[in-house]
Amino acid sequence: MTMIVVVAAALAGCAPGGADAEGGFGLPTLSESDAAAIVAEGSSVEGALAVEANGCFTLAQTDDAAAEGAWIVWPDGARQDGAEVVLASGDRVGEGALLVGVGAEVALADLPDGGSRDSYFGSFGRFCGADERGVLVLTGVETSPAR
After folding, report:
1. pTM (2 decimals)?
2. Which whole-number Å values give the CA distances from 126 to 56, 105, 133, 135, in the listed order?
3. What pLDDT, in 10s, does the model give residues 63-78?
């Protein structure tokens, strides 16, 4: 009987519980210094935000076809609120929002411990397909007015 209670208590700790558990891994962000170490020279990035069925944020369309579908790692200060990202400016972006920013596409292994399947970026990135589609590290981003 004691074993059942212990197992039930352990499983209860894994269950989603309110806003703190929302998003699973959380929103992937890098500090300005960490992003600068990865993105030696950023270029203009423009595209639409896609929210994948698994909750991952990717770039849906862009002038740079190489970044199409890349998993987005956001600048520090951004946070997730359900299926939206709240930028450091306070602007909210969700599915289809046009983004303009500066950043670069990199390999998952370029992120801190990205090559390790047991690390935050390694496991989260693989979950989001970044090992196959790449990572878009944004060093700055804002919403774009509709065209």
Report:
1. 0.79
2. 11, 16, 10, 10
3. 655 567 899 999 999 9
Residue 14, token pair as written in the block: 């894994």
Bridge partners, 50 (sequence order):
58
Closest CA to 62 of 50, 51, 74: 50
Closest C-alpha to 78, from 68, 92, 94: 92
Average pLDDT, the chain: 81
Report yes or no: 126 and 28 within 8 Å, Cβ to Cβ: no
Q: CA neighbours within 13 Å on the CB side: how many for 78?
A: 29
Token couple for 106:
């990199």
Q: What average pLDDT does range 92-96 have in this prediction? A: 94
Tokens 């929210």 locate to 51
d(CA 118, CA 65): 30
